[in-house]
Input
Amino acid sequence: MTDLPARASVMTSFYRISALFLGVAWPLWLVLLAARIGVDGITGDWYTTTTFLLFLLAEVLVLAAAAVGHPGFLVFALRFCGAVLVIALLLLIIDPGAVNAQGPLGLWFAGMTGAPAVAVAVTVSRPVAGGFFLVTLGSAALIDTLAAGHRDAVDIIANVGFALVNSFFFVAVATTMRQVIYVVDANRTATDQARQQAEKLRVRRVDLDARTRRFHTEVLDALGQVARGVRPTPVDADAGPDRSTSSPGPVPSAAAPAGASLHHVTGFNRVFSWPYLLVLAVVLGARMWSRVGADAAGIVTWVLLCGALALLCTRTWGAPRRRRAALVATMLCTAVVVGLWQGTGHHVMHWEYNAAALVAALLVTCGRQKEAMVGLAAGIGLIAVIRQLDLSPDRHITGADMAVSSLIVIVALLLRLIVEYFVRQLPEAQEECRQAGRELEDAAAQVTAREDRLELLASMADPVLDAAARVPEISPALARRADLTRLQFNDMVTTPRLAVPALREAVWDARARGVTVELVDEGEAADVAVGAGSGTADDLTDRLGDFLRTVDSAGPGSVVMLRLPPRQPPG
Output
């Protein structure tokens, strides 16, 4: 027998899809951020050139690993993305002034630090991923804020806080999905092991059936010889019972991640929770205050976005109702339009674009992609129309600004597809594991029943054959016992459903009195109970009393036939 082929690890598939995910999403930010400083800016100083090449190298490695598909290479490439971010931050120790080499723009790559954090999160445990996320993204955002000349506490809270909350749900879902994939792999591994063991037990069962038939024939011949007063031919020891010494091992049970629902399985319980959304509301408030101050348009915009976040807070897996999703989309669209009338303050780009894009990304992650896209498209379209009608307070604000900020929505859409793909595999893997466990239990029970029956047959025949081999001459009593044993031995093999202890003893006694007893089992081979020979079959329960009375009342010379009909199908 050859072992069943092992299936590819689901974790490897997860790494590969994650690498493709980063390979598609990360270059978008890299190109946009590099465009801010231009080619001259990239090549203008050693720090920008070095860090740009490091990030480019990480991108190439990720794409190469996704193409090759080797698990070790995938893990190395994903972790290398995080290592590049750490190296880029540590290089500032050599020359702290390099951060402002392009002028007071801040850290040029601060806007894409979430991608390396997600890359690391899919390959490490949750505590390690959380620590890496907080340290690297927090440090990059803080350096960016200070380098841009913002020293006010509100500015720091706004920039650092938004950088963290903006990437938190990606990291949270990535770490939890890694646990889900681990559980899927554990279920599939247990399934494969159970099937391997069940296949070995099925081979063992076929071997036991063949040995039982051979043993049956040889023992019947030997007992027949003793019954005729002839010394028996020794029975081949290899045909006798040989209980398997290899245990089938524990029957696998379907593994499950901690958490009672798919809402917990995916990590959405932490993203769509009041603590996270309250922190996000506070950060957005600080961001609004630091950008434009507390004017009426800014406050209304903030209230609309916070209301949309509150509507997204749910306790169950799956998409919110269509009306709620449509209301969220309407609120984010209204927020970006109202935000046009804020003061520009000392920041060029409006905070509400990033905030609305994040709300839309959360809506996409919930499974309401259509509503999110319609809300964003409506917002971008209204901004363009207002500008075209000369109603905009600032002609420099265009729908393109909103479109650029909405790249996170594309990332959220890809994330949603990945989550759905792997979450669908979890119940399938669990049910497959449970089914394999049932098959293993059944195969083990069948082998045990056959081994028990073979041992029982041997225990019936061995004393008689051993006695016949030791005496110089077969006595009439021994010959009679051999004949009775031969008949009972044959009953045990041909009618196992009737081989219950009480009926076996009654038939023995009747035959000893000279009664001819014939046992007939009309059931198919599949009707034989797994534990036949050691207990009462269901079909025999109602007939056992009548059978015993018939056998016990039969006199010498009479013929008794006990017939057990086929097992009735369950009604």
Summary: Residues 122 and 178 are 6 Å apart (CA to CA).
